[in-house]
Every structure is written in C-alpha cells, then in structure tokens.
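Hi Y.,

Following your request, here is the sequence exactly as I used it, all 71 residues.
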Amino acid sequence: GGTDYEVRKAQVEQQPPVLGSLQPDLPAWLGPVTQRVLAKDPTARFATAAELAAALRPPERPAASPAPAIT
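Below is the corresponding structure, written out as tokens. Let me know if you'd prefer a different format.
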C-alpha cells in the first residue's frame, strides 16, 4: 500500500517478494526464474528470450526406478 509515490518508489528500489512466499503451491524452481526476470540490475536479467524460455522449462525429473522383480 501507501501513496502512489511510495508504491512507485518501491517498484524502482525494492526487489519484489519471492514468488513462493506469495503462492506456496507453485514449483520451487519458478521462484528464482521470476526473481531474475524482475531483477533491478539489467545485467542480472536473462540476456535473451531463448535463455528465459529455457529457464521456464520444468527441470527433468529422474526416471522412475522399475519395480523390483518378484521371485
């Protein structure tokens, strides 16, 4: 909240809250991606749309182990 000035000042100066603190049911890997997208320092952001697209792909899950054979 606050006045329009306070809100605008916060947008420029403060890093937004971590996504997981606002939506705990989101995948944990998404938080760092959004923090990087919203970084105040342009050099900390993704350099290209392709780099962002790659970061938005969910991480690979390990393949499920086959069930042990019943003997």
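The chain is about 40% helix and 0% strand.

Thanks again,
Q.
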